[in-house]
Design goal:
Helix 2 runs antiparallel to helix 3 (105-161). The protein has 167 residues and is mostly helical. It has helices at 11-22, 65-99, 105-161; strands at residues 30-33, 36-37, 57-59. 5% of the residues are buried. The chain is elongated and about 85 Å long. The chain has a 3-stranded antiparallel β-sheet with strand order 2-1-3, with no helix packed on it. It has 2 domains: 11-59, Phosphatidylinositol 3-kinase Catalytic Subunit, Chain A, domain 1 (Ubiquitin-like (UB roll), Roll); 65-161, Up-down Bundle (Methane Monooxygenase Hydroxylase, Chain G, domain 1), CATH 1.20.58.
């Protein structure tokens, strides 16, 4: 491994190499040498005592595009719920204004009908958001259960092909 400067390879060079070899992005990596986290990216490995043949532990999680997509969907749903809460609070304030008599009596019925339609629209948006989250969670559960089923099948195949000898 060649360093990016004249002092030999740095922690950053090592992290980049580890990312290439393992598909664990730099931001998800934790490199550990002799019990110490290697966090100073510009620092040369030589100054840390790392030599050829040294063992460095990498802790991290590979990039998972599906998990990333699911996280984005969850964050979008969270934002949508915040928007729905804001709209419901606005409708509540409007209803409280009507109840306190801030509106002329002949306009109250019309205002209540309009408010009822607004609340119905917010309720429908909320139900759509919940359905989207339900589909997302169901998809995650199906994916996890299929992985578990595959693991179970692999164990069954292993047990089936395991040579058994009676004594």
């Amino acid at each position: 491994m060649e360093g990016s400067d004249g002092e030999g390879p740095t922690v950053e060079d090592l992290a980049n190499l580890a990312a290439q070899l393992t598909d664990v992005p730099r931001g998800s990596q934790r490199l550990i040498f002799k019990g110490q986290s290697l966090t100073e990216f510009p620092q040369p490995l030589k100054l840390l005592g790392v030599k050829k043949g040294s063992r460095i532990m990498l802790i991290g999680k590979k990039f998972d595009p599906l998990a990333e997509e699911n996280m984005k969907a969850i964050l979008a749903a969270e934002k949508k719920v915040d928007d729905i809460e804001k709209r419901l609070n606005e409708n509540l304030e409007e209803l409280q204004g009507i109840e306190k008599g801030f509106l002329q009596p002949e306009l109250v019925t019309q205002a209540r009908d309009k408010l009822s339609r607004k609340i119905q629209a917010v309720s429908e948006d909320f139900m759509k958001t919940l359905e989207g989250l339900d589909a997302l969670v169901s998809g995650i559960l199906v994916e996890e259960s299929s992985i578990m089923l595959q693991t179970f099948n692999n164990h069954l195949i292993h047990l089936h092909t395991f040579p058994y000898q009676a004594k």
